Amino acid sequence: MDTIFALATARGRAGVSVIRLSGPLAHQTAQRLTGRDLPGPRQAALRRFSWQGEVLDEGLLLIFGAGESFTGEEVAEFQLHGSMAIVAALLRLLSGMPGLRLAEAGEFTRRAMENGRLDLSQVEGLADLIDAETEAQRRQAMRVFSGAIGKRIELWRPKLLRAAALLEAVIDFVEEDVPVDVTPEVRGLVRDLLTDLRREVAGAPMAERIREGFEVAILGAPNVGKSSLLNMLSGRDVAITSEIAGTTRDVIEVRMDLAGLPVTLLDTAGVRDTEDRIEAIGVERALARGRVADLRIILLDDPADPLPVEPGEDDLVVIGKADLRRFENCRMISARTGEGIEALIGEVGAVLARRSLGSGSLVRERHRLAAIQAIQALESAQDELDGGAERLELAAEELRRAIRALDSLVGRIGVEDVLGEIFASFCIGK
User: Fold this and answer.
1) DSSP character at residue 332
2) CB-hemisphere CA count at 13 Å for 407?
3) Which of 91, 255, 327, 429 lies at a 20 to 30 A Cα distance from 137?
4) Would you state the pLDDT for residue 81?
5) Does 244 lie in the same domain as 195?
6) What span, in angstroms and rounded, lies between the C-alpha atoms of 44 and 78?
7) Residue 345: is its pLDDT beyond 60?
8) Which of 94, 76, 104 is nearest to 20 (CA)?
9) 333 pLDDT band (50/70/90 cuts)?
10) CA distance 147 to 153
């Protein structure tokens, strides 16, 4: 296998830049560049990096042995001064050495998977960890990267193998008198697995919302202050505000961190009957996005005003422009003075946090579909068991199908078509 190298830190001027090498020539290359014995595994040593009598830089050298590194191969890391010229010179030098080549996107991580250091779900967790923008995303990605899905598979797989083995034993000795009826035990194992898998699938949509982000739509009639509220919540002027009704014609999106959760706020067109064709399209879009949003903030001028949409259980109805007039027993806010805004943010965060408690370990659509395939196979196995002894072979095959579906979750089989897409999302040095 080639020895690969890449800049593992961000490009551009920095305090420190790290160049990583992985493969059979990594240690030999480090020794050639330093002219000295290598430091012990997982120990940093100050070294001068030079080539043909010319000193390139002085920095730290770290060595990792095969089986002990991130990739599972021999690895060397050069921690250099973060000069663009130094980095360019060393990369140019490495590219001219026989047996070394620049790493492709995600190739370090791919080698980690191929060498058994990570399973596929952990690779996906690492990608999400790198992309995490909020605390909730970080915690969820860290859980997946730490092997949460693989650990669940390791609990389920032995039960499936046990159930399949019991049926295979009966099938193999069908001509003999088998004294024990194994179907009750098989049914119990299948029933327990179905309970666990259905629970995970039920929590998958919320886990995916944490990964992708929640949507909170601000709905109301024209000129009630929706755009002003969006600007106040986002802390900047992202929407045009005007006393002219109908200023907002399209949906304006602002992504932000709200109570540690990823949230996209939607400012929508004012909901009203209108003869203006362009404004009517905006109203239709407002209602459409409002219907599919995770939460709606319904903003009114007056408590007696009709609601533009029927609020859901967790939707928040608030009265705006609290700086101009007061109403008793109402949740009031002012986008001008900030009154009630902090409380509103707290309520939105509390609702979304409560919902996120039901999230499971399956954070991607691929995970959910694999679990659904396993559920369908187990349900089919139950049906075949009901058919009697002559259908045990079909039940055993359905159990094997469930095993294959779970194995695809962690990349043991049948995932070649998704590997390219996954690793392409990584940077070159990862």
Assistant:
1) B
2) 13
3) 429
4) 94
5) no
6) 10
7) yes
8) 76
9) confident
10) 10
Residue 429 lies in a domain: no
pLDDT band for 272, please (50, 70, 90 cuts).
low
Are 221 and 326 in a shared domain? yes
225 shares its domain with 303: yes
In a domain, 393, yes or no: yes
Q: Which of 57, 82, 114 is the last residue of a domain?
A: 114
- Tens of pLDDT, residues 302-316: 888 888 788 888 889
**Cβ neighbourhood burial of 130 (10 Å; 0-12, 13-18, 19+):** middle
Residues 352 and 373 in one domain: no
Q: Which amino acid is at 215?
A: E
Kindly give the residue spans of alpha helices, DSSP state H, lying in 22-119: 26-34, 84-95, 107-114
Same structural domain for residues 40 and 102?
Answer: yes
Tell me the H-state helices in 58-147: 84-95, 107-114, 120-131, 135-145
User: Quick one: pLDDT at residue 37?
Assistant: 86
Residue 337: inside a domain: yes
Torsion angle in degrees (nearest 10) through CA of 202, 203, 205, 210? 170
Q: Which residues contact 327 (CB under 8 A, 6 or more apart)?
A: 302, 303, 319
Q: List beta partners, residue 298.
A: 219, 317
Q: What is the pLDDT of residues 143-186, one digit of tens each?
A: 999 999 999 999 998 898 888 888 887 776 655 555 457 788 88
- Domain extent, residue 247, equals 213-356
Counted domains in the chain: 3
The domain that holds 64 is classified in CATH as: 3.30.1360.120
198 and 217 assigned to the same domain:
no
The answer as to whether 405 is a domain residue is: yes
Phi, psi of 345 (to 5 degrees): -60, -40
Which comes out higher in pLDDT, residue 281 or 86? 86
